[in-house]
């Protein structure tokens, strides 16, 4: 029996790959000192960021990686990485635009991953998991290759949470009968808005240490202090 075929519009997939490539190159170009990368290193990080999410998505779904079935994916990721590297100085001055593109990239990869998982018959929760992995997968691969702490494991601006919320809304809307394309658009919008609000207002999950201190404070407050 042939597996169901889910086709993401090539132009939409390439936009996500291209934006991811630019983001990766900008990230890699910003290092100085011993961690600075040469041109090849920056290009590789850009390609990993552009193609990583799609590769992880298809590997989790046990289907042939779409990004390796066409010349355009690798070409787009490479060109985008070079553009990001050559125009790094300009892009760094457009920080607001870069933050917006970053939020949009997360939303696109998350929506594509969740939509494909739902189309292939996965239940809602696993489909959301695949979408989140696709959204943050490129960043995880980037950090691992560069020997950096994985960003989503530390205090930040709701990176994975934004992706999870968008993917959950997408899957929920589809479960209630919304067309998959319409649900995907809604999911992208939700992820993008949450990510932007988190960055603008510096919202993040509480640190583990803060939670521990709060727990100790609550527990010790119930212990009576005996005065001599």
Describe this structure in words.
Pfam families: Gly_transporter. It is a multi-pass membrane protein. Its main location: membrane. Belongs to the UPF0126 family. This protein has nine helices and no strands. With 228 residues, the chain is an all-alpha fold. Helix 1 (10-29) packs across helix 2 (39-60), helix 5 crosses helix 7 and helix 6 (124-145) packs antiparallel against helix 7 (159-175). The longest helix has 25 residues, at 95-119. It is globular. Residues 1-5 have low confidence and may be disordered.
List the helices and strands and how they pair.
Blueprint: H1 10-29, H2 39-60, H3 71-86, H4 88-93, H5 95-119, H6 124-145, H7 159-175, H8 180-200, H9 208-221
Helix pairs in contact: 1-2, 1-3, 1-5, 2-3, 2-6, 5-6, 5-7, 5-8, 6-7, 7-8
Beta-strand fraction estimate? under 5%
The value of Rg in angstroms is: 20 Å
Order of helices and strands: HHHHHHHHH
* Overall shape: globular
Q: Which structural class should the secondary elements be placed in?
A: mainly alpha
Q: Main β-sheet: number of strands, strand sense, barrel status?
A: none
Low-confidence stretches: 1-5
Number of helices: 9
Mean pLDDT: 84
The percent range for helix content is over 70%
Number of strands: 0
Q: Report how far apart the termini are.
A: 81 Å
Summarize the structure.
The protein is built from nine helices and no strands.
